[in-house]
Amino acid sequence: MLTVKELNAQGKRVIVRVDFNVPLKEGVIRDDNRIQAALPTIKELLSKGARVILLSHLGKVKHKEAPEVVEAQKKKNNLAPVAVRLAELLGQPVTFVNATRGEEVEAAAAALKDGEVMLIQNTRYEKGEEKNDPELGAYWASLGDAFVMDAFGSAHRAHASTHGIPSTLKAAGKEVALGYLVEKEVSNLTRCVNVADEDRPYIAILGGLKVSDKIKVIESLLTKCDKILIGGAMAFTFLKALGHTTGTSPVEDDQLEYARNCYTKANGRIVLPIDSIVGDAFDPAVRTTVQILEDTNVPGEFQGLDIGPKTRELFASEISKAKMIFWNGPMGVFEQEEFQKGTVAVCEAIAKLSGKAFTVCGGGDSAAAIKQFGYVKEFSHVSTGGGASLEMIENDGHLPGIDVLG
Ligand code: ADP
Ligand code: MG
Hints:
The protein has 406 residues and is an alpha/beta fold.
């Protein structure tokens, strides 16, 4: 696959699909990480004298809702503040076009000079974006001479902007390439998919909320990993499946059989918590009790909100033997101070592997936790894509938004 470095971009209109899906509150950007992450690719193209046309989605626009709801969602997910921030970071003007198609877009694209950059409005303003409407993909493709994919967080979706554009351009004999961000993600995550002998023992750590979201990744990891440590709310579905009581912990009852099968198939390679920290409510405003539970049977009125101290030690000791780690999903409700210790303990254990093992974390909330606790530098790679990194592992290294470039 071609990379942005190799792309012949001088004087060309290069369409770049970036991930500017930043957290916005009342039009104010709360974290500009994703804009920062796109800079190397944008700067490379500008320094080559390309005319850069940026496309990104932002938030959700549900076109099936009533027109006034759709309008409200569009208003909330307006990319205009992103253009302002991008201009500051680049130190040069960014032309923002408050439209996704039509004369205004075409005129701005035509007026671009070498080394200039423009951003159009949120791709999800278009109903056809998420449906990968071929007409929309072809229309956007008609604005440029080449395409660069740098939105790793959207690479698991075949949408008009991630799939329609490159497939149209490729069919027309134009160049399509990977951006720096995507290139780095792909090379790091591929290592977690095609496991080399020197990367064993390979240990996966899973947590977070939903088993059903992560089902396929568990199965896939079982074929690749030496061990899977399971914490977070997810562990309670497994524990219930094995006959433990789980109180009011979040359990997905329709996944019990699946969890039981996985556990059996794993033949001892799935490691579950042996104790937990429980509370009588999730909401701190109504909670009266938090306590350490010495075993894995949660009594009636309680719910498990973090792994317990013995599990922290058990997981840390397993982690200390690893040559490679893939981690997705926090060990507890890390947003609340009482339930941070499990997630911090995993961070700490992984930090001890620094320089000795290859360690990757993927997942929106997991990455936020690592950042909050100050461990980003201790990891070999923290993925910018949650769903995309999981799907990359599930699909044995394949993602629609990457494969289309090959
Ligand atoms: P990621 O975004 O990293 O993929 P998820 O979205 O699957 O992770 O899960 C993150 C959420 O899981 C966090 O908001 C955290 O509070 C929650 N969580 C973890 N453990 C528990 C638990 N025992 N009970 C309830 N929620 C939990
Ligand atoms: Mg999440």
